[in-house]
Amino acid sequence: MSLSVKARAATFAQVLRRVLALSAPYFKSEEKWRARGMFAAVIALNLGTVYVAVLLNDWSRVFFDALQNKNEPVFWTQLLRFTYIAMAGIGVAVLKFYLTQLLQVRWRAWMTRNYLSRWMANRTFYRLELARYAQKPGTADDQPANTDNPDQRIQEDMQMFTDYTVTLSMGILNSVVTLVTFVGILWSLSGQFAFTLGGHEFTVPGLMVWVAVIYCTVGTVITHFIGRPLIGLNFQQQRLEADFRHHLVRVREYSEAIALDHGERVERGQLDMRFSSVLRNYLALIKQQKNLVTFTASFAQLAIVFPYFLAAPRFFSGAIQFGEMMQIARAFNTVQDSLSWFVENYDRVAIWRATADRLTSFDEAMRAQETPNEQLERDSAVSLGTEDLSIGLPNGTSLLAGAALAVQPGDSVLLQGPSGSGKSTLFRTFAGIWPFANGHVKVPDGAVFMPQRPYVPDGTLRDALAYPNPAENYSDAELRQALVDALLPDLVNRLDDSDAWSQKLSGGEQQRLSIARVLLKKPSWLFADEITSALDAEAEGVLYKRLSDRVKAAGGAMVSIAHRAAVGDFHNQRWTLVSQPEGAPAGGARYRLETSASAAA
Question: Of 521, 570, 509, 572, which is closest to residue 545 (Cα–Cα)?
Fold first, then answer.
């Protein structure tokens, strides 16, 4: 076996392993008996379609012989027989279609729920995005470190994978069973082909079978070489389409900011660039598909008349009757169709393989991120503390090394430093979501972390206010009071209004809504990251005092990130990230953390 053949065999085996790895979990899941039952029923119905085809093949011989012999009673009997066979075929086809679609839907539903659960568990969705920034130059796009557009992989790729896996596997099964069944029929009908060569007579039994095998083998090889580029082009097309769709969504989400910056020209250029990539790849895909369709259409058209060409001499010599010739032609076409399955489905196989590759890389990327970072030890305690804490960036840059920090109940700490020094990253480490850290961290249970840009879900205002808790946990009076305390009195009568609140509310209103959530939940420990950056000084002072009073009353502490000096009035300690000079010690970190008493102390 040549090296290229071995390589192709290895690639094919690798694809099968990937498909089995993606498919097996469903058929071993809690739905395994239903899944296996439906799969077995679909297989049985596919076998039923083959049996109907055998009946029709035998019927065609008797029917056309009756026409040739002008045997009217047999003619009408066979028409009635055809009715029964056709009705059975229709019933099998309809039931097969329904069960196949039902299997695909149930499989997709289970697979989507499973992947969504894994994607959302242990903040895997967050670490996957971080991993993209850790991508090393030169790494291929389909590597786990650069898993792009997980939304497309969950929504579109899974639908295509389940659809194509069921239909293609059943197509292969149908072709194999049909081939095994009709090869015997065609062999018995082909007769013997005798010829003289070099003074010796030779006889070839089952000529039609050998011709069908040779014809389809040549067609399959040519199809593979013509269609092989489709696999990479389909993979690339799915990625480019997802990138284009993702940027359209970003334009919609940031419509106000783009409009205020007059960024329409830039965004239009970005969209045009992405859509041009889509079109360029799609045109290459069409060109390759055109070549494939040209060959497969020619292959199929020639196959229609080929059996008549071979069987005609025996018919005109009187060796066979008209009905037998029609039966030979039908059996030849059936065998040829079975052997030509790869030729006729190459483009679908290419799409299926590209989809399987994308889901496999997504699955591998999630597996790599599903295990929480074991370098950072994180425990619960009554106070906040760190030992030998080191923090880095995805690209390997060290921000902080060997930090020892402590915050006791009743304290209030203001964290400051230059932009990019790692203030928010330190908060992420306290929260346990930053994977590029090591050391030991103790954080009180129930601590609430407030980002500078809060997430405001679409839906009713009460759900957005209670997020992530169920709105039923709070009374209307509690919800309204939280809005009033957060300086949002205009919203108290809109609890049941449903809207895109991230678009409807201004940046300052979104920050006040986030503060209202905290006032509603009444946490004892609060970590606030620039939570009043979009507010005026007066509103900032009022809200910080209310948060500070709530935290102190609960016997906890507050740690804040802020640039405004006035915020310091609500804190008795100050942590400052100071830039390290080149070649400084402390583990080669770019910053060190200095602690001091705040002016408010």
Answer: 570
User: What is the identity of the amino acid at 394?
Assistant: P
- Tokens at 420, concatenated: 């990019």
Integer CA distances (angstroms), 363 to 143, 170, 366, 499, in order:
11, 25, 5, 34
Please tell me the distance from the alpha carbon of residue 493 to that of residue 495, in angstroms, as a whole number: 6
The first and second tokens of residue 412, run together, are 């209030």
Half-sphere exposure of 166 (CA within 13 A, CB side): 28
Helices assigned H by DSSP within 534-587: 537-553
pLDDT, tens only, 171-211? 888 888 877 777 777 777 776 665 556 666 666 676 777 77
Give residue for tokens 């946490």. Answer: 523
Report, in angstroms and rounded to the nearest whole number, the Rg of the chain calculated over CA atoms. Answer: 35
Interatomic CA distance for residues 58 and 181, integer angstroms: 13
Q: What angle do CA 335, 74, 70 make, to 5 degrees?
A: 95
Residue 400, Cα to own-chain centre: how many angstroms?
Answer: 36
Ramachandran angles phi, psi of 172, nearest 5°: -65, -45
Say which residue, 188 or 576, is predicted with more confidence: 576
Let me know how long the chain is: 601
Judge contact between 311 and 320, C-beta under 8 A.
yes
Rounded Cα gap, residues 242 and 156, in angstroms: 10
CB 404 within 8 A of CB 441: no
Q: Provide the residue type at 366 as one letter.
A: M
- Say whether pLDDT at 3 is over 50: no
Residue 416 has which token pair?
Answer: 């400051």
Query: DSSP class of residue 576?
Result: E
| Cβ–Cβ under 8 Å, residues 458 and 502 | yes
Q: Which among 411, 392, 428 is positioned nearest to 601, based on CA atoms?
A: 411
Helix, strand counts (H, E) of the chain: 19, 15
> Phi, psi (5° rounding) for residue 536?
-75, 165
Structure tokens at 103: 């299997």
Answering whether pTM is above 0.70, one says yes
- Residues paired with residue 593 on neighbouring β-strands, in sequence order: 577
Burial 243-265 (b: 16+ CB within 10 A, else e): bbbebeeeeeeeeeebeeeeeee
Residues 444, 488 contacting (CB under 8 angstroms): no
Residue type, 62: V
Dihedral angle at the C-alpha atoms of 561, 565, 571, 574, nearest 10 degrees?
70
Angle, CA 195 vertex, CA 189 and CA 197 arms, to 5°: 150
Task: Sort 594 into a burial class: Cβ within 10 Å, 0-12 / 13-18 / 19+.
Answer: exposed
Which tokens hold the place of 365? 């990327």
Report residue 235 CA to chain centroid gap. 13
Which helix H or strand E contains 204, and what residues bound it?
strand 200-205
Q: How far are the Cα atoms of 21, 292, 559 from residue 8, in angstroms, in the given order?
A: 20, 20, 59
CA-based nearest residue to 230, from 158, 193, 284, 181: 284
Residue linked to tokens 């906040």: 384
Gap between the Cα atoms of 511 and 524, Å rounded:
20
Of these ranges, 4-13, 83-92, 216-225, the one predicted with the greatest mean pLDDT is: 83-92
Distance CA 60, CA 78 (A): 9
